[in-house]
Every structure is written in C-alpha cells, then in structure tokens.
Amino acid sequence: MSHNNQRKIAFINDFTGFGKCSITVALPVISALKVQCCPVLTSVFSNHTAYPEYFFEDYTDKMQDYIDNWKKLDLKFEGISSGFLGSVRQIEIVKKFINDFKDDKTVVVVDPVMGDDGIKYKTYTNEMCEKMKELVAISDIITPNLTECCILTDTPYREDMNYGKIKQMAEKLSNMGPSKVVITGIVRGQYINNYVYQKGNDGLIIKTKVIGETRSGTGDIFSAIIAADAVNNVDFISSVKKASGFIKKCIEVTNKRDIPPEDGVCFEDVLKYLK
C-alpha cells in the first residue's frame, strides 16, 4: 500500500507555539485547501522573537535524520515549501531535500525570509544571502518582499522604487530559476501592492487597501496559500488575489478584537471562506 495517494506539501520552517506564524499557521491553511501539510522543523520556539522573552531550540542537528526516515517511507511530494532559515547549514539541508525529493510533478516554493524595511535580519550573514540565491535558483515560485528582492538582485533599496525598476528585479530573479515571482508588501499610499511576474509575460500589480497595522504571520499565510494552490493547479494570478483577499479578511476580524500585533491574525474565524 502506497503512502502517496494524497497530495502533500513538505513545509520547511520553524514551529512557534504562540504568535501565529510559520508552521503553526501554514498547517491549517494548507489543510483547508485540501492538501496534506508535512512539516519539517528547523527550530522550536515557545513564541516568536518579537516578544521580550522566548524559549528556543535549534533543530538543525536532527533535521537530516528526520528527513532520512521519509526516504525510507518512499514519500513523494507535489509541493516543497521553505520559509525562514537560520543558517548556511539549514539552507544546504533544504537544497539537498529538494534534490532528493523533487520530481517532474513537484512545485518548489521559496519564501526567502531575509529582511524588511531595507534592512536584512541580524541573523543573516553575507554568506547566507549568497546561499539563498542558490536556493532561489532551484525553486519554481518565490515570494520575496521588496527588501529581499533587493538583496537577492544586489540592488540598492528604495522604499519608493518605481515599478519599472521592480519589473527589472522580477525579471532578474526569474532568470535565476523560478518561473513565477510575486514581490509582496509594496506600500503605496493607502494600498499594499503585490507585483506578480511570470516568465515571458508582463508584470501585474494587485492592490489591497491598508486596513490595519502590520501583523505577525501574514507572510506565512500568504506563502502557504500560494504553495497549496500551486499543488492544486490554481492559476498564479488568481492565487495571489486569493491570498491577498484572505489576509485582508483575517486583519478585519482581528482588528475587532483588540489583538496585539505580535499575536498575529485570527485566521481561524475566516478559515471556512478559504477554498
């Protein structure tokens, strides 16, 4: 009897018990879209690092043994998705995972979580940035924000960068490997825009009106929807619109509850609308 009679995504990210991000949000979102989510833990947090204190355990030394047992089960994945990675070694493990498990039916989605607001995260070294370029090169879809786009293309960051320049960066990223690129969270006045690019086509701007402050975990929800939709053969532009609209619904219900921004969004309230 085969273990591969249901569509599956291997989702490689940290596990955070409180704060609604990473695997904690991806698993229910992917499941709601009728795809089995199989987590690969990079680390364990009691709550994410925006809180004053947190418990943390690095899972790097255990990752390969964990993955090797999946090989013994001969698991096949229609999707492989990665999020925040904490070291060069973790990036190398993900590259090996893709090499070992990807076949012609597998879609690889990389969310290159490297920085924001024009600044790379303190944990990200120059070597890690170069290794992330290698991971991007073997992906099919990537979901960087504007900061990460600039890091990956060696482009000076400008918050008000024009769309001509953004298109050039999207094309450069696509030429590195992925056929589909969505540059997320581009703030323009009262709108947050996503720039969607597919190799060989003109880019498209998808606008969503700003309805609240930035919240933890929305990027993880976004990339989870993109990954599940890719496995389900949903049109890429339709998928980005769905992800943007769903996050807007999440923020709307969260704003009514006076939830601290680091606590994320009340996606559970609107999960039934995700199809």
Topology readout:
Layout: E1 8-18, H1 23-32, E2 36-47, E3 56-58, H2 60-72, E4 79-82, H3 88-101, E5 107-110, E6 115-116, E7 119-120, H4 126-137, E8 141-142, H5 146-153, H6 163-176, E9 180-188, E10 191-198, E11 204-209, H7 218-231, H8 236-255
Parallel strand pairs: 1-2, 1-4, 4-5, 5-8, 8-9
Antiparallel strand pairs: 2-3, 6-7, 9-10, 10-11
Mean pLDDT: 96
Oligomer: single chain
Estimated structural class: alpha/beta
Arrangement of strands in the largest sheet: 3-2-1-4-5-8-9-10-11
- What is the helix/strand order? EHEEHEHEEEHEHHEEEHH
Number of helices: 8
Tags for this entry?
275 residues, alpha/beta, nine-stranded mixed β-sheet, two-stranded antiparallel ribbon, globular
In words, what does this structure look like?
By secondary structure, this protein is α/β, with parallel strands linked by helices. It has helices at 23-32, 60-72, 88-101, 126-137, 146-153, 163-176, 218-231, 236-255; strands spanning 8-18, 36-47, 56-58, 79-82, 107-110, 115-116, 119-120, 141-142, 180-188, 191-198, 204-209. The protein has a 9-stranded mixed sheet, sandwiched between helices. A two-stranded antiparallel ribbon has the order 6-7. It is globular. The model has no long low-confidence stretch (mean pLDDT 96).
